[in-house]
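Troubleshooting log. The previous structure file for this entry was overwritten by mistake, so regenerating from the original sequence record. Sequence copied from the archived sheet and checked twice against the printout by T.R.
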Amino acid sequence: MASVTSLDVAREAGVSQSAVSRTFTPGASVSVETRAKVLEAARALGYRPNKIARSLITRRSGIVGIVVAYLDNLYYPNVLEKLSRELQQNGFHALMFFTHQSSDKMDAVLGELLEYQVDGLIMVSAGLSSEFAAKCASSGIPVVLFNRTLDDKTLSAVSSDNVDGGEKVARFLLCCGHERIAYLAGWPGSSTDRDRRMGFTRILSDHGRTLYREDVGHYDREEACAATRRLFATPPFPDALFCANDHMAVAALDVLRHELGLAVPRDVAVIGYDNAPMAAWPSYSLTTVTQPPETMVPEAVRILLENIEASAPRPEQVKFTGELILRGTTRGCL
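Regenerated output below.
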């Protein structure tokens, strides 16, 4: 039995073939009456639009690539779900690619992206080198960084205001009277760690203070555990610990409470960053700075889709101010 074509639907509905095409194209202009006729004819004939055939005509695949470096941090699965839903509501589908931070791995991902002819690219939890960005641009692939920034103003990015978030944490800890304030860093080369640390240490410096101790956890649970052990290896211990994200903060809490026998927040206050779902779990009740995906995700998708439609790149860099959420790992200000 021959498959039903758009021409068959057009004849059944008494409209042009282009009207059928517009009916099944998200965002295309078509009257309510025509749309109803086409959908009824399509239902009666059992017609399903051929997205592959349409992509050959429009030179659009309807696919957005999402590049992810890791999913251990529970903040990112939440983000990916929201990104996929937001793209789907706008007529696009997400295709996920996993990579590492090394440039050779990123080059391999670019090759795959070109093979799938993605219409755009969102980088989530993955750094983006200037070289990779240039290759994407030369290939005509719009890129939006999510929760990452580059100094290159020709690139689009959506992130929280990490400098402001670090400043909020420092002011709060100083207000609470903490004297020995430590910092657990993420990836030292990442914009998120750089900016959170910058804001944090700037406020400490403004008050004549410096970090009591500092170590690196690379946004990894096991490395964060090891770094916490080093930070608390010798007394007097830090009386406050700011972790560059929640994933490391909950690792630090496990070490502090269950290995070192310290009481949180009586002996040491702990603050994270992200407001990942586990931060609100009663077992952790972690004080943290929010990165609201419910506002950041729609903005990232808007920027990407506008750049897909644009004849020339229109880069935007948007920052959202995060809120310091007070929970059980800190005490109130004195």
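The chain has a mean pLDDT of 87. Archived copy saved in two places this time.
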